[in-house]
From TrEMBL:
It holds the Pfam family GST_C_3. It is found in: Cytoplasm, Cytosol. Its main location: cytoplasm. This is Glutathione S-transferase. It is an enzyme of class 2 (transferase). GO terms for molecular function: glutathione transferase activity.
């Protein structure tokens, strides 16, 4: 929601998202994957949008949600997850996804 909000609403949405990412950061610390094993598990799959979409959402929304200083383990997990061949092969093209998010954010902003 932070991508299409403005002002104080945007700041609150960013803060809420960062609180959620802080929770995930604690869960992943010291592990390669959320399962705690060297294999991906259900939570890794459920959160698999992070390495794919987060950078695009930040770009489209003109904000920064995750940085390496606050969330090093989460970013390392995102990199590890995105490099799994089976996952990497199924990610949609970045340009197509960026176009999609631009349309969604534009639509949501127009409804304000």
């Amino acid at each position: 929601m932070a991508a299409w909000k403005d002002g104080e609403e945007k700041e609150k949405a960013i803060e809420s998202a960062q609180e959620s990412f802080a929770f995930l950061e604690k869960l992943i610390q010291g592990k390669k994957y959320f399962s705690g094993e060297d294999e991906i598990g259900y939570l890794d799959l459920a959160l698999g949008w992070i390495p794919l979409c987060l950078e695009i959402v930040e770009e489209v929304g003109g904000m920064k949600l995750i940085d390496a200083e606050k969330f090093p383990s989460l970013l390392e997990w995102a990199h590890n997850f995105a490099e799994i061949p089976l996952i990497k092969e199924r990610f949609p093209p970045r340009d197509a996804l960026a176009n999609y998010f631009h349309k969604i954010v534009g639509l949501m902003r127009s409804k304000k």
